[in-house]
TrEMBL record:
Transmembrane segments: none
Lineage: superkingdom: Eukaryota
Stated role: Catalyzes two distinct but analogous reactions: the reversible epimerization of UDP-glucose to UDP-galactose and the reversible epimerization of UDP-N-acetylglucosamine to UDP-N-acetylgalactosamine. The reaction with UDP-Gal plays a critical role in the Leloir pathway of galactose catabolism in which galactose is converted to the glycolytic intermediate glucose 6-phosphate. It contributes to the catabolism of dietary galactose and enables the endogenous biosynthesis of both UDP-Gal and UDP-GalNAc when exogenous sources are limited.
MF terms (GO), sorted A to Z: UDP-glucose 4-epimerase activity; UDP-N-acetylglucosamine 4-epimerase activity
Descriptive protein name: UDP-N-acetylglucosamine 4-epimerase
Keywords, ordered alphabetically: Carbohydrate metabolism, Galactose metabolism, Isomerase, NAD
Annotated NAD(P)-binding domain residues: 99-421
UniProt record, GO biological process: galactose metabolic process
InterPro entries: NAD(P)-bd_dom (IPR016040), NAD(P)-bd_dom_sf (IPR036291), UDP_G4E (IPR005886)
Pathway entry: Carbohydrate metabolism; galactose metabolism
Amino acid sequence: MKILLNSCENVDTVIARECGPRIRTSCKSSNYLTTRADKKIDNHALFSIHNYIYYCVYLLCDHTARLFDKVRWWFFEEIESPMSCKSCKCAVGKSNVILVTGGGGYVGSHTVVELLNANYSVIAIDNLSNCFSSDKHEKPESLKRVEKITSKNIIFYNVDIRNSSDLDKVFKKHKISTVIHFAALKSVGESTQKPLAYYENNVMHANGVKSLVYSSSATVYGIPQFLPLTESHPTGQGCTNPYGKTKYFVEEIGKDLCTAYPDWKLISLRYFNPVGAHPSGIIGEDPSGIPNNLMPYISQVAVGRRDFLRVFGSDYDTVDGTGVRDYIHIIDLAVGHLRALEKISKPTFTGFQPYNLGTGRGYSVLEVVKAFEKASGKKIEYKLVERRPGDIATCYSDASFAKEELNWVAEKDIDEMCKDTWKWQSNNPNGFS
Ligand SMILES: O=c1ccn([C@@H]2O[C@H](COP(=O)(O)OP(=O)(O)O[C@H]3O[C@H](CO)[C@H](O)[C@H](O)[C@H]3O)[C@@H](O)[C@H]2O)c(=O)[nH]1
């Protein structure tokens, strides 16, 4: 016989419904079957006992199923996003899924190597505007090579950070703990010619996650009022180019956010001049078109892609009249991001904090040319030309605050920067393509 059990009924109401009130009372008596002779009543009693056991089994199964369901959801909640991370297995734990915007670019790809080596799960997005990819649905070549270096998988989306609906999809799909925001245009010279493109690209779009490591720049300091530059140096005043202004604006937005919403945390890493390449020579800097920055230009002259370097300005008040910058090896810079992630994930860290990432030592353009000639064994032809608009004479860091707070110091010197740049460029004369 079948009895329909309604989930809202308790045992008493079921038995009452099926067997009547007398039996309900009787069946609760342990000696009922042995003391009653009435067959009809016995049949009723047997029937109700059967139902009772049936119902108890049902309850047991139901509770077990619910418990199992709860455990299952708790389990998935802990290790991966209930939304969909099953496909990508991105979430090893809540605190180590990092979204890297601009992941295919120079600083992005080198940082992804360090993140993967430190066992973070990486979701990379890029609009492929400044990195080579054989197909727009494919990962950029730089990230394919990062997978080769690390033997680890990167989840990649071709997403433009200005497209908020595409960004939303990524945030919904993955349980991201922190964003490292690299996606930006980065040429001082170009920014003076195409300021609108810089304001549109570089002023960030917030989305969900409230923990952000931001890729800022020493250009926020403008024309230095004192050297070396510490984090307390005024920013924004006298920013000499739109590129530097975009970095300054984002820092200001970040400060306001962190003041208004105490659950927001932002570390702004003020890069000095990143150069060099992964020591394997498998990835490196591959600007599209004519390089704007010094080191890739020199290395393209060395490899025969350009005839000579134009040295912008030889009348600055510096050691040899050429501009002085604080060059930092890309691997040191990438490791700086790991230290920043460790810092920002501490419950004690709150608000907005900038850190300089530099070596603390400046080199002139001609000193860099000399160091590169030594590392590559190639003669670098150059011509002294007019100053470049937006440039300053000298810029170098005091990075002691990063040492103190992040336990980070730049370890690689100018010779290693040139050696690794040359290894990359000579192994890949045409870059990634
Ligand atoms: O073809 C070139 C390119 C550069 N330079 C000179 O080399 C020095 C370095 O110039 P870069 O273009 O390599 O670097 P910037 O200092 O202009 O800017 C760089 O450093 C900034 C911080 O100082 C930011 O990090 C920014 O992203 C990064 O491009 C400058 O004196 C510049 O005039 C040349 O002489 N010829």
